[in-house]
Design goal:
The protein has seven helices and two strands, in the order H-E-H-H-E-H-H-H-H. It is mainly alpha-helical and about 120 residues long. The protein has one domain: Orthogonal Bundle (Recoverin, domain 1). Strands 1-2 form a two-stranded antiparallel sheet. The two termini are about 15 Å apart.
């Protein structure tokens, strides 16, 4: 069995925390917070704005178009992040990045990542 790479581990952990209703999918509202952790890997234009919108990224990940992004859909979509944020598969570096942002969506994402998840997941 091959060990999961650090980025997959990090994204899977985040996915579990952002799936607030625990239905195994991120709906558009849940994805809004998840998008914040994807931003470090998204190219930006000359003005510093992401070159792919939240809605377009959601559509790219929602392979079957059912209005929800599953863990498998998320993991099978090419996601890039700086190595210093994913080198050990933990959320600490990602949490530090989010806490430096000045948007309410980044603050919400940081709160979700920092929260303990009492729901056991297999």
């Amino acid at each position: 069995m091959t060990a999961a790479n650090p980025l997959s581990t990090l994204l899977s952990t985040a996915f579990t925390k952002f799936d607030l209703n625990k239905d195994g999918k991120l709906d558009a509202s849940e994805f809004s917070s998840f998008y914040e952790i994807l931003k470090p890997g998204i190219a930006v234009d000359k003005g510093g704005n992401p070159t792919i919108s939240e809605q377009d990224y959601f559509a790219r990940m929602d392979h079957n178009g059912d209005g929800g992004v599953t863990r498998d859909e998320m993991l099978s979509t090419g996601v890039l992040m700086p190595a210093d944020m994913t080198n050990n598969g933990s959320v600490e570096a990602l949490l530090a990045f989010l806490q430096k942002q000045v948007t309410s969506s980044a603050a919400r994402a940081a709160a979700l990542l920092a929260a303990d998840d009492p729901t056991p997941r297999a």
